[in-house]
From TrEMBL:
InterPro entries registered for this protein in UniProt: AB_hydrolase_fold (IPR029058), TEII (IPR012223), TesA-like (IPR020802), Thioesterase (IPR001031)
Entries under Pfam families matching the protein: Thioesterase
Name of this protein: Thioesterase II family protein
Domain Thioesterase TesA-like: 24-241
Keyword terms of this UniProt record: Hydrolase
Family: Belongs to the thioesterase family.
Organism taxonomic ancestry: Bacteria, Bacillati, Actinomycetota, Actinomycetes, Kitasatosporales
Length: 246
């Protein structure tokens, strides 16, 4: 797998000579880099936004999906090496992507880590435990309401997207947190007020996973609250990233 295949850029970045913050975004299970196009548009004047494209979807559909979060993190670390612009690095992960971003943060020491809609790594993701087959998997995707229901009702489309979904759910279900070095950067934990997968008791332990400051931010909405509050979240990220460039 070529390192270049892992990262996508959708908008013109600030002048590279200014060494802007690089914000790397990690999508949810079954998601793709394109999910972050709206956020990238909002932040294009502030940072260089890169979105991770996992194999097995969209333009990488012909590649085998990876069903191990640690392996995903290692690939992203390698891909980021030649992509660095010399400026500060920040990571933003949504749902499964938050765990991948966290594992990357343990390896790269970014300036900021933003984790969205995800229990703390040491708690595990209990919502995937009852998923035994494709029917359960599709039902869970419908429950989260982050995927076009038309795609889930189209047998031809399901044939294309199910391999990646199976791999992603397996990666989350089998993820095991191991004690070790933790990110030393500030961590921002974002959740939706109606997201049953991230009640306060499963997200507050994110404070255990940084030696820096940890803050919590709640937005009205469910698991995919981000779609409804892109502007507000972009404002939060921009304000929080500003000190990182000083």
């Amino acid at each position: 797998m070529s390192p270049k295949s892992w990262l996508r850029s959708f908008h013109t970045a600030p002048d590279p000579a200014s060494r802007p913050v690089q914000l790397v975004c990690f999508p949810h299970a079954g998601g793709s880099a394109g999910y972050f196009v709206p956020l990238s548009a909002q932040l294009s004047g502030v940072s260089e936004v890169l979105a991770v494209q996992y194999p097995g979807r969209q333009d990488r559909w012909h590649e085998p999906a990876i069903d191990d979060l640690g392996e995903l993190a290692e690939h992203v670390v390698r891909a980021l090496g030649p992509a660095r612009n010399g400026g500060p690095l920040a990571l933003f992960g949504h749902s499964m992507g938050a765990l991948v971003a966290y594992e990357v943060a343990r390896r790269l020491a970014p300036a900021r880590l933003f984790v969205s809609a995800c229990p703390a790594p040491s708690r595990g993701v209990e919502a995937t435990e009852g998923i035994r087959d494709d029917a359960d998997l599709i039902a869970d995707v419908r429950r989260l309401n982050g995927t076009d229901t038309g795609l889930l009702s189209d047998p031809a489309m399901l044939e294309l997207i199910l391999p990646a979904l199976r791999a992603d759910y397996h990666a989350v279900r089998t993820y095991e947190w191991h004690p070790g070095s933790e990110p030393c950067c500030p961590v921002r934990v974002l959740t939706g007020s109606r997201d049953s997968d991230t009640p306060p008791h499963v997200v507050r332990d994110w404070k255990r996973h940084t030696t820096g400051e940890c803050r919590f931010h709640e937005y009205e909405g469910g698991h995919f609250y981000l779609t409804e509050h892109t502007r507000r979240i972009a404002d939060l990220l921009a304000a929080d990233l500003a000190p990182a460039v000083r």
